[in-house]
Write a structure and sequence with these properties.
This protein has 292 residues and is α/β, with parallel strands linked by helices. It has 13 helices and seven strands. It folds into two domains: 65 residues, Transferase, Pyrimidine Nucleoside Phosphorylase, Chain A, domain 3 (Up-down Bundle), CATH 1.20.970.10; 188 residues, Pyrimidine Nucleoside Phosphorylase, Chain A, domain 2. The chain has a seven-stranded mixed sheet, sandwiched between helices. The radius of gyration is 19 Å and the shape is globular. The termini are far apart.
């Protein structure tokens, strides 16, 4: 199937949901070669339309989810996550926000990995905080029930990604996997706060998420390029609830926050970012890093 899919994309045709699902299933099963995988990812990334279609994203995400180690539960879970790739070099915003959301009573199941383009990914920061990031499903369920916060290490729960990990690094370009990571949380959260690196992703992902079982989500993009709710510029928001969409814009001033530059929230190594997270949670850091 993958050869046919590559030819179709090169011929400037979109894949159907079923075709995208079938190709991703082949890739995750190890049935394709490294050359085929690289050609497919590069072809998708260089489409004349500028991005993958809703069917291509949805079909790929569905197949990838099926190959993940599942985390079954009966809780209303939220994930706070970003696509990455915004090159802001910020502190670990969503990781710190996850602690605050859990303290407010939400059940947060954060799905993440080590750093790709930044110095400190979610897994790196949590590890520096002393968290055991390699937890089995039963421990994740226990933590969600008792403290309302758990972490799913992508390398543990998506072992089929071994078939494309090296290829992604060697290609050195954004691929469909930048989008798929946030869509393939093995706990299948019903609620999401999803930051994206490009404004062009807002509407497509708002239409993908309901098909993945997400009841309500905010998909956000800072107009300064951040895959976060920015404190330095307006943020574009797509809110989707039960497949109904609403688009609007928010500004830091709307929440009494003084606008600040990206430099004010610049991060560093995992140890440095972990120290910032501790400082924010302890109330010792009250500047722009706490605001975001």
């Amino acid at each position: 199937m993958i050869k046919e899919a590559i030819k179709k994309i090169v011929d400037k045709q979109d894949l159907t949901y079923d075709e995208a699902y079938a190709v991703m299933n082949e890739i995750m099963s190890g049935e394709t070669s490294a050359v085929e995988n690289a050609a497919y990812l590069a072809a998708l990334s260089t489409k004349s339309s500028g991005m993958e279609t809703i069917d291509e994203i949805s079909g790929s995400a569905a197949a990838m989810r099926e190959h993940a180690q599942p985390v079954t539960h009966e809780m209303d879970v939220i994930d706070i996550v970003g696509t990455g790739g915004d090159h802001s070099g910020s502190i670990n915003v969503s990781t710190t926000a996850s602690f605050l959301a859990a303290a407010a009573g939400l059940k947060v199941c954060k799905h993440g990995n080590r750093a790709a383009s930044s110095k400190s990914g979610t897994a790196d920061c949590l590890e520096a905080l002393g968290v055991n990031i390699d937890q089995p499903p039963e421990k994740v369920r226990e933590e969600l029930g008792s403290i309302g916060l758990a972490f799913l290490f992508a390398q543990r729960y998506h072992q089929s990604m071994k078939h494309v990990g090296a290829i992604r690094r060697e290609l050195g370009i954004r691929t469909v996997f930048n989008i798929l990571g946030p869509l393939t949380n093995p706990a299948r959260p019903a609620y999401m706060l999803l930051g994206v690196y490009g404004e062009h992703l807002l509407r497509p992902l708002a239409r993908v998420l309901p098909g993945l079982g997400v009841k309500r989500a905010l998909i956000v993009h800072g107009t300064d390029g951040m895959d976060e709710i920015s404190i330095g510029a307006p943020t574009k928001v797509y809110e989707v609830e039960n497949a109904t969409e609403r688009a609007y814009e928010i500004r830091p001033e709307d929440f009494g926050i003084t606008p600040a530059s990206k430099e004010a929230i610049r991060g560093g190594t995992p140890a440095e970012n972990a120290a910032v997270t501790r400082g924010i949670l302890a109330g010792e850091i009250t500047d722009a890093r706490a605001d975001i």
